[in-house]
């Protein structure tokens, strides 16, 4: 395949026929045909102008004419198809097609674009367009564009692509792009009449181990009964690769759900786990954090250089907003109710409803849109073909960072030391000169602030609405109780376990039942181990 | 929703309160007779607020509109707004309050079928009149409800037929995704029956349900992707309701699902819901409705003009349930004028056969089964959040509220 042509660098049609003899006669003829075309520009022009009026017709006319333009190999087809894809191609009432800037596509002259309307697409046209653009862009000087073209042909494949791809592979220097082209060639050969090439294609697609290849093979199985066994072998190979990948993806989804639970529960691990305050308004602090993110985003919108950084900036903002709300709540109400859990529960529940309604009055009942920055959108391909979505990946990273921050604050700061001292023995701590009331307020504010930071993460995956918090309060308590009250390790392990178990169960039980199963499992677990996974030992646990 | 102005925010907050306070104080310069009261029963908070708040505003707009024209039978119309807060039992309580305390003559309200099912016994017991403006699953007919949205044969079935046609991509496998309540479950049951009649086997249909407000779609979207890799062209039919749609579409975009490979047709997502999402990754995904904001023609231009000047925001969108609310309200005023009475029994008799040139560009008629004849339109999401109409029926289709694909009810058809 790589003989001769590679040195020539290959302009379109300028490559010689590969000198080895195994080449199919049809392919040779097609290649010759391609050269003939370019030698006879007059004919190509006719075909090009003949295909254009279809673009001014109905959807099926547009699709047909796009296909015609795609196989022409005429350089003028590329701008027309690109403009169509970008929604910038226009048509006039009398059936002329205009390029952006009001240039008549057929004549190249400026035309009157006054009454022109945009040519619209539907999915059928889009499919045809992808294939046609792919064929034309195979000769692009840009490697990324050639790669995209190979992927497009892989999806749009037809037998006519075989010679085009063989020529492209012969002159391709980039290994990554060539691999894509080889796959696309296999896909095209699968629908081409050459039986021997088809067998090779089946094996090659099997080795590729991609879900798309599996779909192609199963499609081909129906029309090629004599190759059924070979196809089955290939499909089984793909299935093996996919099952490993699927397990990895499920694990990732579980960790991602777990990291959201961890973020939501970490603040509670401090206020409930360390201080023993049942704070039913915890979810509302998460909600305040999400709204703080929204406000920071709106504030940054005006300054272009600041806008991409609005999300990182909103982390401290959300912490401060929620921490301030927490400090007010603790000083104003909760400190009067220490040691009376039932009253605390009812009162914080009421505070939660007040906060919800206050936000509803201030921002409206409608959801607010927090935009994901570009670096958090799309999918990241890990080695081995495991696909992970960027926003989830960042949330896992953020969850770990917040956990480390909390651990560091408790272990290594003076505030952490005082907090531990007050929790272990309030009276002795007070005699040592620690102002326990101030430490209580700071601890509660700290826990609330962490909930606010969780709100920043949640704003990326959930709706920012006044009732955002209600969805997280139950899960947070579940994590803390399951992991063991007062243990940060327990919160981490508990959150990740619940996330993974939920995601593993989901395919079998459905999203609704999976949650029910998890709840039942926790109930049984708490019966056996009332103190959770990592129970505190010693006197502190008994008090 | 992104560009909601501060005035709008205040209106959301104070709308209900203001309407309730202003009501007794009004002494308009209308002719003799007490004002005619209409109830507005839409969630202004909770998971359905994303969809229902605009409907509350639509009814208030129509009240202003009819009063500007001199009222109905020369009498002023007044709106009584209550907030059932996406809480289904609260819908029944609020309906009772509207009928017994405020003594409204007609009510415009509900979005989800579960809320309609919860108020239906109240309207039947107290002989009230409810105008329900949303497409639904059918299998219901009450003398106290007028259904101005689509029945399954006016939305769900034509949409799936389109997906299976050459233009729609020739789908052979269907993934049915929905929120877990009566509308998606019944619609999907009807669709399963329909798909079976078209020769699509059980193995080629996948069904998944999620709770209201579901936000973690990664597993389900990954499973749909896998379902699509079985060698047959696949499509998604979504009956996901409320704000769960935002994270769902976000996940579709993030996992790189392109409409030309795996199109998703939604039955409960319109212009208003899309206003909260970045639609660029969603271009080409579909929605089936009986009205789109992009419909050409004078009736729609007037409707849009009325809405945008009422809401004082030239960028606010209109959608199908708003159009159904508008149509229902106008037919109600026509029927009251015809009956020369606001009594439920008189208006009910006058409603049947009412016709209106609706904003969708077709003449709609109230049929004896309390449903409308409506055209079916299929639109593709565009980058600007509007729909590009790619398919429509030549005429308005008569509603069949009893589906032939639900065996135990099929014989109740008229």
Task: Describe what you observe in this structure.
Chain A: Keywords: Amino-acid transport, Cell membrane, Membrane, Transmembrane, Transmembrane helix, Transport. Chain A: One of its GO terms (biological process) is regulation of DNA-templated transcription. Chain A: It comes from uncultured Craurococcus sp. Chain A: Pfam families: BPD_transp_2. Chain A: It is found in: Cell membrane. The complex is a heterodimer of chains A (543) and B (414). Chain A has helices at 5-8, 25-39, 41-51, 59-72, 77-85, 123-137, 143-156, 161-171, 175-191, 195-208, 211-223, 228-274, 282-301, 310-332, 341-363, 390-412, 414-424, 426-431, 436-458, 470-483, 488-528, 539-542; strands at 90-91, 97-99, 103-104, 117-118, 379-382, 386-389. With 543 residues, chain A is mainly α. Chain A has a domain at 244-542: ABC transporter involved in vitamin B12 uptake, BtuC, CATH 1.10.3470. In chain A, helix 20 (470-483) packs across helix 21 (488-528). Chain B is globular. In chain B, 39% of the residues lie in helices and 16% in strands. In chain B, the strands form 3 sheets. A 7-stranded mixed β-sheet of chain B has the order 7-6-8-9-10-13-14, sandwiched between helices. A 5-stranded parallel β-sheet of chain B has the order 2-1-3-4-5, sandwiched between helices. In chain B, strands 11-12 form a two-stranded antiparallel sheet. Chain B folds into 2 domains: 6-150 and 324-365, Rossmann fold; 153-294 and 377-410, 3-Layer(aba) Sandwich (Rossmann fold). By secondary structure, chain B is α/β, with parallel strands linked by helices. Chain B has helices spanning 6-25, 49-68, 88-101, 113-125, 156-164, 182-197, 218-227, 245-254, 271-274, 298-311, 320-339, 344-351, 407-410; strands at 36-41, 77-82, 106-109, 130-132, 145-147, 173-179, 205-210, 234-239, 264-266, 286-289, 355-357, 363-365, 377-381, 387-392. Chain B is built from 13 helices and 14 strands. At the A-B interface, helix 6, helix 11, helix 12, helix 15 and helix 16 of A face helix 1, helix 2, strand 7, helix 7 and helix 8 of B.
